[in-house]
Amino acid sequence: MSAKRNFMTYVGLKTTEPKMRRLFDEFKFTRFADLLGISNEQ
Description:
Number of strands: 0
Distance between the termini: 43 Å
Oligomer: single chain
Largest sheet: none
Shape: elongated
Order of helices and strands: HHH
Helix content: 55-70%
Number of helices: 3
Strand content: under 5%
């Protein structure tokens, strides 16, 4: 990555947490294993 791209990525990190929190509040997330009914228990 170029130095400019590295800098822009670093600067953009401060807005990442609020965006992720909004996603977690608005949508239900799950694992693919749960969707497929696959158990990890042995």
